[in-house]
Design goal:
This protein is mainly α. It has three helices and no strands. Helices cover about 80% and strands about 0% of the residues.
């Protein structure tokens, strides 16, 4: 298996886990406004940590991992 295919498989696996967490979050948020606030903060922290890790890893490796990634395309794909 190529290195790129291996990465793709791992990301697809993680995506399955994340979609399960999002489905669980929907159920948790149905219960109360407090849950909505708490889960929003959890999601915000997760996305912030992910973004900062990309930036840190890019800086440390000297390779901008987000170069060529279009947020416009990401938004339009859905």
């Amino acid at each position: 298996m190529s290195d790129v295919k291996h990465l793709e498989d791992r990301l697809n696996s993680v995506m399955g886990e994340i979609t399960g967490i999002i489905d669980e979050m929907i159920e948790v948020r149905k219960n109360s406004p407090q849950n909505k606030e708490k889960t929003a903060k959890i999601l915000e922290e997760f996305l912030s940590n992910l973004y900062h890790y990309f930036k840190t890893a890019s800086k440390e490796s000297g390779d901008n991992l987000l170069a060529g990634v279009s947020l416009v395309k990401i938004k339009l794909m859905n």
